[in-house]
Amino acid sequence: MTSKPEVDFIEGPPPTELQVTDLVEGDGPEAVPGGVVDVHYVGVDFETGEQFDASWDRGQSARFPLPQLITAWQQGIPGMKVGGRRQIVAPPELAYGPAGGGHRLSGRTLVFVIDLLGVG
């Protein structure tokens, strides 16, 4: 994956549970719970389709220990293989919490498209 993905607008009501969809199956090492991942990602608001963050726009990937990330990523990335692209739809409870939680994205259902570049 060498280009920023377009995130398709999803019809219907926001899901109440985590949705994980492999868009491209990777063939490299697998991400493990509690591990470190190197990713490129795009995040959009489920209801408006507006992008709120993208590592692509900063021109470099992001490297994180999974335990430091939102629950949706902690649950949705393990099992993914390097070289893969995965879409994760995260209800508020698995993202930044319910409305009024103090984060600008609290109460929002979020869609992420994540490219797994490496694990470590």
Overview of this protein structure:
- With 120 residues, the protein is mainly β.
- The protein has one domain (19-119): Chitinase A, domain 3 (Roll), CATH 3.10.50.40.
- The protein is built from 1 helix and 6 strands, in the order ββββαββ.
- Strands 1, 2, 3, 4, 5 and 6 form a 6-stranded antiparallel β-sheet that branches.
- The two termini are 19 Å apart.
- It holds the Pfam family FKBP_C.
- Its EC number is 5.2.1.8.
- Residues 34-120 form the PPIase FKBP-type domain.
Condensed summary:
This protein is mostly beta strands and 120 residues long. The chain is built from 1 helix and 6 strands. Strand 2 and strand 3 form a beta hairpin.
Number of strands: 6
The end-to-end span amounts to 19 Å
CATH architecture: Roll
Spans of at least 5 consecutive residues with low confidence: none
The major pleated sheet works out as: 6 strands, antiparallel
Shape: globular
How many separate structural domains?
Answer: 1
The CATH C-level class name? Alpha Beta
Structural class: mainly beta
Mean pLDDT score, rounded?
96
Can you give the helix content as a percent range?
under 10%
Number of helices: 1
Strand content: 25-35%
CATH topology name? Chitinase A, domain 3
**What is the alpha-carbon Rg in Å?**
13 Å
What letter string, H or E per element, gives the SSE order? EEEEHEE
